[in-house]
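In response to reviewer comment 3 from the previous cycle, which asked for concrete evidence that the modeling workflow produces usable outputs, we include below a single protein chain processed end to end. The sequence was submitted unchanged, and the resulting structure tokens are shown without manual editing.
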Amino acid sequence: MTDKADLAKRTIADFLDRNAPAFAKLSDSLFYFSELGMQEHRSAKLMGDLLEGHGFSVDRKPSGFETGFVARYGRGRPVIAIHTEYDANPGNSQQSGVDEPREIVAGAPGHCEGHNVNAACMVSAALALKQAIDEHEFAGEIRIIGAPGEEQLISRPYYVRDGLFDDVDIALHPHILDEFRSDFGLIQAAAVSVDFHFSGRSAHAAVAPWDGRDALDAVILMDSGMAQLREHMMPGLTMHRVVTHGGEQPNVIPARASVWWYFRGPTAESVDPLFARARDVAKGAALMTGCEVETSIRAAVWPVLLTEKVAEVIQRNIDAVGMPGWTEGEQDFARRLQRAAGKPEIGLRPAITPFSGPAQQISASNDCGDISWKVPMGRLWFPANVPHIPFHHWAGGAALATSIAHRGGLAGARVLAGTVVDYLTDPALVEEARTSFRSCIGDTVYHPLIPLDQIPPRSLNAGLMERYRPAMEAFYPAGEPVFT
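The workflow returned the following structure tokens.
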């Protein structure tokens, strides 16, 4: 590390230490907003206003995403992008600091993975970096990118398609976990998200059902056919669905019915044949019921590929910062939560996770995968939740507005900002990342999986937020975070 980098990292550490209350306020505000994908209006405004107020130029609606933002500071090369998500999930409202299922608002959305802490980590690191750039006169640009709708795998393929990463040298993605580590290799799956819309003919279900063509029957028959298809799928392929519309009332034959499927696989190429088989099954279901079927792609993402040399730089900063020293109260809460969730009662991890790899690919997906095939990308996993507690589960939200999330997220912000400093001060690291990236992707040529003319689904989740937001507003924290 150069003397200049060392001084900048001290500036960053001082900034984050004195702004720990502001970090907690930001993270908790996003937690209680609990906005679903494409409806993160308060979340995006709060973060955009903070960045703009500290001297960043802010584009509020990149690629047509009303709840996205791109904030820029600095000039010249390298261009280092930090991107993350801040959406919640439906039906996962959970009081924080409580070791039993207890909703904040019954049936409402909630953060049950920790995207609120992801966003606080990113924004706090950005503000600390701005101070370091000013004090130590670094060249280069930091680009802070808010990505709506990650739970629906939506925004970042649009950003890549529309050129937002064309001039980026390094991309970094902070994400909550119960560990402090980085890794590399092919880590998450490709996915295609598709609606199948069946159209039939309505009729009175008791008086003249023979006059109807039941679209819900088509959905059910498609489901049956997909169940039989599972036996013949290649290892590593997965699929799952929800019925999004099944009719209005039992005595009316449904003329319209829809089902939403996810298809996942280890590579971008592996998903398309599975989707093609599903289309054939849907056509067969339509034929059997006398209905018609149309398909509509909601999202399509590449698998996540993390560049080894970027992971090494992140890990060196993790080693330097170290795991937070958890209090006995935090350890006690973690063990109680693990007991309530039926998990091993190991408490919080006492040490960072040693660097190793390549990572084992998992079947989950993230829409940042497209970025990772465009530019060298690294992911920082920071320790702000409880070990063995699953995401998308009531217990996943129980620690997200506690000191565990605050202190783990602050440690993550320090590592994230320190990693950027290394790239701003050492051109050799940037070139090393490029070389490592080219080795990773080989002769693969990236191309968007989403249609080139597709526009974002702006109204997605609007109805759910309109239904629950009035009751949720009673729990919004008063005031806004103030970073100094």
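Residues 157 and 418 are 27 Å apart (CA to CA). We consider this sufficient to address the reviewer's concern, and the full set will be provided in the supplementary archive.
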